[in-house]
Write a structure and sequence with these properties.
single chain, about 110 residues, three-stranded antiparallel sheet, about 0% helix, YDG, YDG domain-containing protein
Length: about 110
């Protein structure tokens, strides 16, 4: 009965593929661990961190008729990890220039 334990950590927190993972403090445990000598107590490998999906919505797009489809929208996000600096930008436009309520607004 032998098991190994250690602590693994990515080299950085950012999403990506083939990222280095460092393992430290590797130790043998279990009833038969004394029958083995570890040649190293550290190791490394590679793994992936998938990008987190966020939700973006637009609000505050009402305006007074001005003959154009231009719109000004406030973009709001949900799901951003605390401490990450993310800014959103886009261009908003009404489906047509005519006055009315319940108008479709596209943000690209």
């Amino acid at each position: 009965d032998v098991s190994l334990s250690g602590t693994a950590a990515f080299a950085d927190k950012n999403a990506g593929t083939g990222k280095t993972v460092n393992v430290s403090g590797i130790a043998g445990n279990g009833a038969d661990a004394g029958n083995y000598t570890l040649l190293n107590s550290t190791a490394s490998t590679q793994a992936n961190i998938a990008a987190k999906q966020i939700t973006v919505s637009a609000s505050g797009v009402n305006k007074v008729y001005d003959g154009s489809t231009a719109a000004s929208a406030k973009l709001v996000s949900a799901g951003i990890v605390s401490g990450d600096d993310v800014s959103l930008s886009g261009t908003a436009a009404f489906a047509d220039k005519n006055a009315g309520s319940g108008k479709t607004v596209s943000v690209t």
